[in-house]
């Protein structure tokens, strides 16, 4: 290799989602490259969603375990994903990232009140490796309606990236965008914003064992859950002032030994987390069962909670949000996490009687009840039937599919097709998952940062709500 040529190796992870099992192997893989690659040729980056509050270690430590693991693994920088930005408060994120030994880039993450990027985030970075100057831009998905409720102003990632590329391109040799946007956004970015050398992708869990190349931009992605670490090897010619080679791959982590240091960190925080989650939040007098395929007390209770939380006329939620029943006696934070792990928020919307009827008819069909759902915060197994509060539904199971419901009563009167109803439900439906007619709601209002397990916990302490959950809403028509 000529004296004017310099190599840069970028190792990148994404969407680990608190899967702690592969983290010790990821650390061993990265340590191997630290032994083989000189420090002035190596850069280690996480592209977001390292944390996930569905897991005991993260939930019980408020994310401290993830930062401790990342510190010990030796990340050089990170970009927050939506699982960091939308499931932790601003104050908690600040406390967490102030404990990080690595900088965190949030190029499009501004504070709603001041319009500024907070001091604990970097708007961009220029990193020196040998004689190479590497510009780093980090952008996260702009779920604006949600972020605003947590005090964020998440700006358009394309506009921000375009501005920063124009600012940095002449100052650096290599320009990298760390993108927690998804593969289709990354492709479009490569097409419409000239000057980006490589995009390290995340969010849509895409595994690119060979990078995509669009124009002069190389697009990478290392899958999900820590099964792979991405490797991008770049050769830069300082005399020619250009990249002469850019090769990428993804390496499986399963063949690596487990780092004892990382195992010890995880074990330490698991002990702390389990202790914290043993906190008793209430005691219930009887068993509350869940049934994914029929009406149940625990499902009804969650629907009641959504109706009341949102100040709505009706509550609707899919039974699959609840993974198990609650036994009589003490209920702990940990047990609520086990039965309701999804980081899904309440929301309020207006639906017509026709839209409600369509969803209720579908919820009688096995193909919907047993439908596997992936993404958008859902951590269950199947969609499940609809749990209801505020309605009585008369059903004739002998009738054809989508014509089984004979009448729907709201406050004792028959629900008309064009009648508008205020419904308390869940944000997942607004993304078009499961019961599609529920994605057509209007005047949507989200409630954050509370999750469904917070809604449930709010009702378990009141005997009248538990008694109300035993009432039947699905009634066989004579």
UniProtKB/TrEMBL annotation:
- What does the UniProt keyword field contain? Hydrolase, Nucleotide-binding, Signal
Among the Pfam families in the record, one is 5_nucleotid_C
Q: Which GO terms describe its cellular component?
A: outer membrane-bounded periplasmic space
- Asked whether the keyword Nucleotide-binding is assigned, the reply is yes
Please give the InterPro entries that the UniProt record associates with this protein: 5'-Nucleotdase_C, 5'-Nucleotdase_C_sf, 5'-Nucleotdase_CS, 5_nucleotidase/apyrase, Calcineurin-like_PHP, Metallo-depent_PP-like
Calcineurin-like phosphoesterase domain residues: 9-206
What region holds the 5'-Nucleotidase C-terminal domain?
A: 290-425
Q: Name one GO molecular function term.
A: UDP-sugar diphosphatase activity
Alphabetical list of Gene3D superfamilies matching this protein:
3.60.21.10, 5'-Nucleotidase, C-terminal domain (3.90.780.10)
A biological process (GO) of this protein is: nucleotide catabolic process
Instruction: Keyword check for Hydrolase, yes or no.
Output: yes
Q: Which CDD domains match?
A: MPP_UshA_N_like
| Family stated for the protein in its record | Belongs to the 5'-nucleotidase family.
The molecule here is called: Metallophosphoesterase YunD
Q: Which organism is it from?
A: Insulibacter thermoxylanivorax
Q: Which gene encodes it?
A: yunD
């Amino acid at each position: 290799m000529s004296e004017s040529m310099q190599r840069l190796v970028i190792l990148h992870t994404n969407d680990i989602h608190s899967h702690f099992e592969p983290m010790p192997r990821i650390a061993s893989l990265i340590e191997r490259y630290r032994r083989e690659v000189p420090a002035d040729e190596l850069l280690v980056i996480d592209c977001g969603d390292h944390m996930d509050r569905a897991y005991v270690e993260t939930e019980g430590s408020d994310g401290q375990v993830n930062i401790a693991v990342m510190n010990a693994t030796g990340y050089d920088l990170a970009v927050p994903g939506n699982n960091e930005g939308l499931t932790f408060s601003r104050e908690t994120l600040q406390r967490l990232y102030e404990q990080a030994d690595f900088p965190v880039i949030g190029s499009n993450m501004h504070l709603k009140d001041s319009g500024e990027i907070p001091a604990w985030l970097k708007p961009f970075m220029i990193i020196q490796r040998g004689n190479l100057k590497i510009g780093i831009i980090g952008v996260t998905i702009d779920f604006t309606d949600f972020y605003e409720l947590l005090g964020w102003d998440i700006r358009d990632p394309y506009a921000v990236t375009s501005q920063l590329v124009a600012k940095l391109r002449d100052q650096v040799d290599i320009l990298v965008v760390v993108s927690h946007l998804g593969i289709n956004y990354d492709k479009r970015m490569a097409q419409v914003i000239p000057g980006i050398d490589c995009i390290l992708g995340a969010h849509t869990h895409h595994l690119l064992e060979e990078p995509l190349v669009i124009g002069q931009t190389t697009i990478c992605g290392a899958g999900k859950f820590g099964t792979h670490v991405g490797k991008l090897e770049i050769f830069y010619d300082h005399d020619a002032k250009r990249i002469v080679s850019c090769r990428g791959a993804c390496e499986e982590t399963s063949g690596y030994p487990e780092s004892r240091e990382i195992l010890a960190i995880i074990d330490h925080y698991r002990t702390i987390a389990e202790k914290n989650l043993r906190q008793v939040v209430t005691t219930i007098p009887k068993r509350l069962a869940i049934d994914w395929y029929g009406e149940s007390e625990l499902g009804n209770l969650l629907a009641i909670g959504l109706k009341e939380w949102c100040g709505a006329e009706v509550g609707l939620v899919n039974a699959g949000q609840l993974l198990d029943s609650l036994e009589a006696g003490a209920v702990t934070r940990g047990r609520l996490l086990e039965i309701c792990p999804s980081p899904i928020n309440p929301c309020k919307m207006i639906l017509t009687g026709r839209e409600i009827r369509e969803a209720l008819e579908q919820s009688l069909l096995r193909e919907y009840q047993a439908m596997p759902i992936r993404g958008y915060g859902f951590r269950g197994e199947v969609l499940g039937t609809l749990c209801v509060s505020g309605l009585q539904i008369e059903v004739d199971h002998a009738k054809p599919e989508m014509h089984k419901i004979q009448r729907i009563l709201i406050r004792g009167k028959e629900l008309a097709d064009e009648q508008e109803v205020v419904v308390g439900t869940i944000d997942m439906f607004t993304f078009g998952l499961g019961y599609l007619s529920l994605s057509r709601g209007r005047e949507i209002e989200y409630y954050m940062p509370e999750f469904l397990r917070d809604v449930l916990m709010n009702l378990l302490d009141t005997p009248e709500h538990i008694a109300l959950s035993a009432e039947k809403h699905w009634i066989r028509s004579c």
